[in-house]
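Revision sheet: structure tokens.
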Amino acid sequence: MTKSDDTSHIHPPARSHQPFQAVVMPVERASTIVFDDLEAFEKRAERVYDGFSYGLYGTPTSRLLEDHIAQLEGASRALVVPSGMAALTLATMAVCRSGDRVLMPETLYGPARDMILRFLGPLGIEATVYDPRLDAGIGGLVDNRTRLVWVESPGSATFEVQDVPAIAAAAHKAGALVAADNTWASHLLFKPLAHGVDISMQALSKHAGGHGDLLMGSLAVRDESLFRRLKDTARFLGYGVSPEDCALCERGLMTMPVRMRHSAASAENIITWLSARPEVVRILHPAMPDHPGHAVWKRDFSGAAAVFAVLFKPELARVQAEILRRMRLFKLGASWGGVHSLIAVNDPRKGRTSLDWLPPGPLWRLSIGLEATDDLIGDLEQAFAAAADFAASQRAGRTAAE
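Predicted:
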């Protein structure tokens, strides 16, 4: 059939269905998906979970990534969504209804705590914040209205390690599900589903993306009915992911083990150097033998991420802004798991009731990237030295003024 130019611009020649086998994930973009006949079109809703019905609900690219994540998590199904925050919201909304309760540790990601308290609370979902050190004792908090218990081990600010199998056993005994924010360790260092967890969540923006340019989250499960509840909730919320972002994430997964091993080795050396500094009071990292959760970490985890916290002496508060201003390689940023080394400064004591064990003083969270270890130590050293000179000059100025 002869086609006009206008029509030919829209309908290219039919392409061969012979597979093109590249070693990398193909990127297939679509909003509209077409069907061969009326019967297939009318049954398109049946394809939501496994096939393709509309681009928002999945493309071959996103399904490949989901299958890969499921494999890595030891899951039967996985779902990718626009961010880690989206994954946390989705999991909670899929499991809980008005009148239900959700338990969350004080260490849970701050914006997620706000979401549960300030967004889901007015919708009738009651939230209870618990001490992350409760472990099996959490059974005393789980009642017949509790539908979901969140864990985050270690906590991303103060690094408490939770006994996840003990918490899961207590929650399941009362009929509640357990969801784990496993972003710190990722599937590479800890597999929540193998330790009794029902929903394993990650912010893929961190270790999986690995370059500070990707926003995505994932949920992995073993139960098909639970997967369908998650998928339906994602549809109702209009969650979709970009195929290009899926390809970036898949590329990040391929280098993730190498990056994480390099960063962890570098972090170990930096921790050794920091431990000898006069400014430092304590290092918060579960791989350290004196960490309160070290035994549980050693039992359940296969390694340590290069993300940890440093507690400084209180007097450092006067010059920490100057120290951070002098940094050349470390950047101020509230993330981790990327190729760039980052420092996040916060005071976790605000809004917490279970931090009686944490002495006063500034707390920094460090994420060690892929820069040379000696260069990173040199950056810290020169910044501390410059801040000491700055403090000395301030003292001299005050003395002269007096």
